């Protein structure tokens, strides 16, 4: 039997085998990309379904005509009730803490306020779980035998701290991404609101129209405007709908829009002119933010310039001269060699 010659190797690794594996991974990635491109889902489909549920609940009379505090939009589930009873028995459920978590959930885009109790329960249980896992890994399996006692204690404390802060970090990141998306689309939304107001549409119709136009480009902003339009149609006091918008979005620009809308509703000032001034102000703010990033670019590029570009430039410029000098010294030879 004739053995086939081995393929080329690099550092003891078969190059052909590695190339075959990488080619297979690339083929799988291409197939996944084609599948993702062919199965694009409408980003507003799920949101529209949730907003229709909100409209039905308002029609059913969940929000009353009085000025009392808005009730929860979603019925309490057995899971949240059990978690709430457990936390209340341990005296760790405070009203201020629950309200803070509710606002963070609203900023992150979660409508169900009952999830605040679940988040508090996870924050109470997760540090214990991560601490037990870290203790098993560090002390039980002896995975890090070189660690000193100080490092072991530090790793255990870090695992417990990470378990405590993980839900808050998750909500903060989710809220930050959502707020940034709303900030990008707000000037365009205000321009459309000005056009709708000058065309004679009512405020709730204008919000609904803007939500339909910007829903695909900015789904989060379209979601908020559509929900505001629904609340404007059903709530007894329209300022409650605007205040709910400011409560759900952690953005000073949105709070300014809400203040303007409430003042125009109260004093009867022209809505189009006020929104036009706000839109120009937000566009100037966005331009100033872009100019600020451009001004910081030279300082940011200094480190890559020193580490990557300047050494290459020195090699290209001084390399030929250094080679010529080296060849010249090598050609002369040591003194006295010609006489021998």
How would you explain this protein's 3D organization?
The chain has 340 residues and is an all-alpha fold. Helix content is 76%, strand content 1%. It contains eleven helices and two strands, in the order E-E-H-H-H-H-H-H-H-H-H-H-H. It has helices at 15-38, 45-59, 78-89, 95-108, 115-140, 149-198, 203-214, 219-234, 238-248, 252-267, 271-332, and strands spanning 9-10, 13-14. A two-stranded antiparallel ribbon has the order 1-2. A hairpin with a 2-residue loop joins strand 1 and strand 2. The longest helix is centred in the C-terminal third of the chain and has 62 residues, at 271-332. It is extended, with a radius of gyration of 32 Å. It starts with 8 loop residues before the first strand and ends in an 8-residue tail after the last helix.
Give the CA-based shape: extended
Mean pLDDT, nearest integer? Answer: 78
Which bin fits the share of residues in helices? over 70%
Structure class: mainly alpha
Calculate the terminal CA-CA distance, rounded to whole Å.
61 Å
Strand residue percentage: under 5%
How many helix segments? 11
* Low-pLDDT sequence parts: 62-76
Largest sheet, order of strands side by side? Answer: 1-2
Record field, number of beta strands: 2
SSE topology string: EEHHHHHHHHHHH
Largest sheet: 2 strands, antiparallel
Radius of gyration: 32 Å
């Amino acid at each position: 039997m004739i053995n086939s010659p081995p393929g080329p190797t690099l550092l003891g690794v078969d190059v052909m085998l590695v190339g075959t594996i990488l080619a297979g991974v690339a083929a799988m990635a291409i197939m996944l990309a084609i599948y993702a491109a062919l199965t694009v889902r409408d980003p507003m489909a799920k949101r529209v379904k949730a907003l229709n549920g909100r409209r039905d609940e308002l029609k059913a009379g969940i929000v009353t005509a009085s000025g009392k505090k808005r009730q929860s939009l979603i019925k309490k589930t057995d899971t949240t009730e059990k978690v709430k009873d457990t936390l209340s028995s341990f005296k760790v459920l405070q009203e201020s803490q629950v309200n803070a978590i509710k606002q963070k959930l609203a900023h992150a885009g979660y409508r169900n306020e009952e999830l605040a109790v679940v988040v508090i329960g996870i924050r109470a249980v997760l540090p214990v779980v991560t601490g037990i896992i870290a203790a098993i890994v560090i002390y039980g399996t002896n995975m890090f035998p070189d660690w000193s006692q100080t490092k072991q204690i530090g790793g255990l404390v870090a695992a417990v701290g990470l378990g405590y802060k993980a839900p808050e970090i998750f909500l903060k990141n989710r809220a930050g991404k959502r707020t940034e998306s709303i900030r990008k689309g707000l000037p365009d939304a205000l321009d459309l609101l000005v056009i709708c107001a000058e065309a004679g549409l009512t405020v709730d119709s204008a919000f609904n129209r803007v939500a339909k136009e910007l829903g695909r480009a900015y789904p989060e902003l379209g979601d908020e405007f559509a929900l505001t339009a629904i609340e404007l149609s059903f709530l007894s006091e329209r300022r409650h709908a605007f205040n709910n918008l400011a409560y759900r979005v952690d953005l000073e620009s949105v709070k300014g829009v809400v203040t303007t809308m409430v003042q125009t509703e109260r004093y009867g000032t022209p809505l189009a002119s006020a929104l036009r001034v706000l839109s120009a102000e937000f566009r100037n703010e966005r331009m100033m933010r872009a100019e600020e990033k451009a001004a910081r670019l030279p300082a940011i590029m200094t480190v890559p310039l020193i580490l990557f570009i300047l050494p290459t430039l020195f090699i290209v410029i001084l390399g030929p001269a250094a080679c010529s000098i080296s060849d010249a010294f090598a050609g002369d030879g040591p003194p006295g060699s010609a006489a021998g």
